[in-house]
Amino acid sequence: MKILPLGATQTVTGSKTLLQLHDHSYLIDCGLFQGGERLQKKNVSVNTKALRHIHAIFITHAHLDHAGYLPYLFHHGIIKPIYCTPLTAELIKIMLDDSLSILESQTEKEKIEGLYFEQKDIDLVNANIKTVSYNEKISFSDCQVSFHPNGHILGAASVRIQSNENVVLFSGDVGRQDDPLHMTPDIPLDAQTVQLEATYGDRIHSQASSLALLREEVEEIIQKKGVLLIPAFAIGRTQMILRLIWELFESDPHLQLPVFLDSPMGVKVTDLYAKNCSELKLTSKEFDDVLSCVKLVRFGKDVKKLKKMMPPFILVSSSGMLGGGKIMNYLPEVLVRDYNTVLLTGFQAEETLGRQLLEGAKTIKVGKQKVDVRARIKLLEGLSAHADRHELIGLVKRMDQLKTIILNHGESEVLEHFKNVLEDSINVNVIIAKANELIDLS
Ligand SMILES: [Zn+2]
User: Fold this and answer.
1) Which terminus of the chain has a lower count of CB atoms within 10 Å, N or C?
2) Measured in angstroms, how far is the CA atom of residue 301 from the centroid of ligand 1?
3) ipTM higher than threshold 0.90
4) pLDDT digits (tens, 9 = 90+) for 398-424
């Protein structure tokens, strides 16, 4: 058994790992590198030669950095069966449609040479998806594969692969035990090898109540008559934010404000969440109550209403790291006024506008426009969709047959730190995945 990491190595995006077994190779995740131009250009130099002969693709979840490279791969003529859970398949459809519309709306300057796909590639991706229920086993000539809920977003899974030699687990992005919306992770513990995400391998999530932090920011904009702009990833995070806003309004009705969600993809994903409450910690009735607090911007007339809206109000929009999307229409205007607040809600990758704001930039560039940052910039802690160091260590400690941990999906310093902590905590071999460096587990 050999593992060849091709992405999310010493960075948090571009997840792609090649698993070489006796008869075949398999690709686990097929994600895009995201962030600044340097990271985006890595998508052009993906080692497609190594991917030509794969037998199948397994997708852990539908975030862009785990599934967004699929149409590019198919555009290269590498057309393979894709296995994922039914809800991941639904989300992939929504996510890829959104990717294409972003690609088509790019100006010549924004385009990255060699990074391109078309509608027919999306159609091919969708036609090649085979859905697998949680815990169902699918068999290949040299392995058995199953998907297990890991609590990260709707449909998300860790992938367990059992060969004749070994059980290997690809964690995907690991969610949190006490996530208020998504399923509790139920990850198999019998692997000898785990490829473990390490986004937050260097920290323990703040115990600060996200509800209390949101209350503070809502009170602030009510007092200042400002706009509370909440950038949120369309899948998972947006629905968490809406749930939290509902909880705040329920507990403090006098804080009720108009709330808008302007994110075409976020709206579609929210509709999908509403239809699948059996896979969430909210009942359908509760999800309806959440939706009653927010105006989903679906039509031109909704946008007009939003534009005429007098503050204070709350606007949730994508993308979560300010790398594009509808939020860019609002960002310059919100940032230049000191009575507004931008409330970041999740991990802000290196080289993104979100990271620049978080690090206190006084001026940022939104497209070609230079914008002075006068608004309050805050981070809504306690709302992560990723397990922290304690939770990750807790997981691997329960895996009593574990021999090797391969760390990926983390920034370099985080990985080094986490490797040291793991080596001090448990007696296993810890390897930091490096791009195109083969790991031989036989
Ligand atoms: Zn993710």
Assistant:
1) C
2) 33
3) yes
4) 999 999 999 999 999 999 999 999 999
